[in-house]
Amino acid sequence: MHRLTLAPGTMCTLIGPPGCGKSTFAAQWPDTWRVSLDFYRKLAADTETDQSATPVAVQAQDLFLDARLARGLTTIVDSTNLRAPARAGLLARAGHWQRPTVAVLFDVPLATVEAQNAGRDRVVPAHVVREFHGLLPTAEQLHDEGWPTVHLASTLTHPAR
User: How does pLDDT run across 54-97, given as a tens digit for each residue?
Assistant: First the structure.
């Protein structure tokens, strides 16, 4: 196991289903580094679970992502990022700003994700967790999409803050 070290200006994208540990993992960095669809949905609708707020949350994420990348600031993209078009858009944004990219794949077994999801304050419906888990790409798929560096979350340590 090793600690993930990010070069200044890197866009680090977390990829995994709800309940797999992405936000817990992201919490090891300053909160200003993180862009999160859940957080922007909460700002728009007073709850992270209102999926009707996703379009405006995506706009906010893109705005803050561009603002950080333009300034060469290290950024953690904390959302599921399970759909290839969303990942392609993130790669394009980082490419536009000529920033390095890293993907962290949360290849957590479905039973573990379901158990962790059940213990959260905001439980995602089980059928959604299963659907999203089924969308998990492999590290090879991510490399094929253009992610130069892919880490499996299971190989990374979670340091204390």
Answer: 999 999 999 999 999 999 999 999 999 999 999 999 999 999 99
d(CA 122, CA 69): 30
pLDDT per residue as tens digits for the range 11-61: 999 999 988 999 999 999 999 999 999 899 999 999 887 889 999 999 999
DSSP string, the chain: -B-----TT-EEEEE--TTSSHHHHHTTS-GGGEEEHHHHHHHHHSSTT-GGGHHHHHHHHHHHHHHHHHTT--EEEES---SHHHHHHHHHHHHHTT--EEEEE----HHHHHHHHHTSSSPPPHHHHHHHHHTPPPHHHHHHHT-S-EEEGGGB-----
What is the pTM assigned to this prediction? 0.92
